[in-house]
Write a structure and sequence with these properties.
The protein is an all-alpha fold. The protein is built from 10 helices and no strands.
Length: 250
C-alpha cells in the first residue's frame, strides 16, 4: 500500500509540473507577490520604509505570501479533482487495487510537498532581495503553514465534492477563499471591525490561519495559539468527515 501511495504521489507530481498554469500559480506567484510588494512598501529600496509599512513587511507580508501559497494549493486541488472526475480518471483509479483514501492522500501529499517547496523559494528569495533583516523560526513557521494548508485542503475536498464541473471549480474555489483574507485580521485587527463583521471573521478558518502564522513568524510560542490549532484541527476533521460522505467519484 505504501509503495502504491508513493508511486501515485510521484506520478501526480509529474502531472502537476506538466501544467504550467498550476505550477506558476503555486510556485511563482506567491514569491512574486512577496518580493514585489516588499520592494513597493520599501519605496523601491531608495529610502527607509514608514513605521506602518515596516510593521506590515515584518509580519503581514510574509503571512500574506504564505496564505497565497496555501490557497493556491487548495484551489489547484479542487480543480484537479474536478477535472479527474469529469474526465473519468477518478472512476478508473477507483477500479485499481489502490484504496480510495490512498488516491486522495496522494493528492494531499502533492499539495503539501509543493507548499513546502514554495515556502523554501520564498525564504531564499527573501534573503536575497527582501530589505528587512529578520530572524524568524522558519521550521516552526513551515510546520504552521503545513497544518494550515492541511486544514484548508479539507475544505477544498468539500468544494470538490459539490462543484458540478471542472469549468466552475477554480472560480468557485477562488471566490470561497480569497474574500476571507479581507476579514482575517491581516490588514486590520479583528477587534477593530464592526461587531457584525467580527462575528463573521471569527467564523472563518482563515482568521485562525492568519493568527497562527503571524504569531509563529513573530516568535510567539505554540502554546499561545492552542485555540487557533484547535479550530484548524476541528475544521480539518469535520470537513474530512463531510467530504467522505458527499464525495462523488463519477
Amino acid at each position: 500500500m505504501l509503495r502504491g501511495l508513493l508511486q501515485l504521489t510521484w506520478l501526480e507530481i509529474k502531472i502537476f509540473l506538466r501544467e504550467p498554469l498550476g505550477a506558476i500559480g503555486t510556485l511563482v506567484m506567491p514569491v512574486a507577490v512577496f518580493l514585489i510588494a516588499g520592494r513597493a512598501l520599501n519605496r523601491g529600496g531608495t529610502g527607509a520604509p514608514s513605521p506602518a509599512n515596516l510593521a506590515f513587511m515584518q509580519a503581514g507580508l510574509p503571512v500574506l505570501a504564505a496564505l497565497f501559497i496555501s490557497m493556491s494549493a487548495v484551489i489547484s486541488l479542487v480543480t484537479v479533482v474536478s477535472i479527474y472526475r469529469e474526465s473519468g480518471i477518478l472512476k478508473r483509479l477507483r477500479a485499481t487495487p489502490l484504496r480510495p483514501p490512498t488516491i486522495l492522500t496522494a493528492h494531499v501529499l502533492v499539495k503539501l510537498v509543493f507548499t513546502a517547496f514554495s515556502l523554501v523559494l520564498m525564504t531564499l528569495a527573501g534573503r536575497r532581495y527582501y530589505p528587512v533583516g529578520l530572524d524568524v523560526p522558519l521550521i516552526g513557521f513551515g510546520a504552521a503553514l503545513l497544518l494550515s494548508t492541511l486544514s484548508l485542503l479539507s475544505i477544498g475536498f468539500v468544494i470538490a465534492a459539490i462543484v458540478p464541473t471542472a469549468r466552475f471549480a477554480q472560480p468557485i474555489g477562488a471566490l470561497t477563499f480569497y474574500p476571507m483574507i479581507a476579514l482575517s485580521g491581516l490588514f486590520a485587527p479583528v477587534d477593530a471591525l464592526p461587531a457584525g463583521l467580527q462575528t463573521v471573521a471569527r467564523l472563518l478558518p482563515v482568521t485562525y490561519v492568519v493568527s497562527l502564522l503571524r504569531g509563529i513568524w513573530t516568535g510567539e510560542p505554540w502554546s499561545a495559539h492552542l485555540g487557533d490549532i484547535a479550530v484548524l484541527l476541528v475544521v480539518g476533521v469535520a470537513c474530512t468527515a463531510l467530504s467522505s460522505r458527499v464525495f462523488r467519484w463519477e
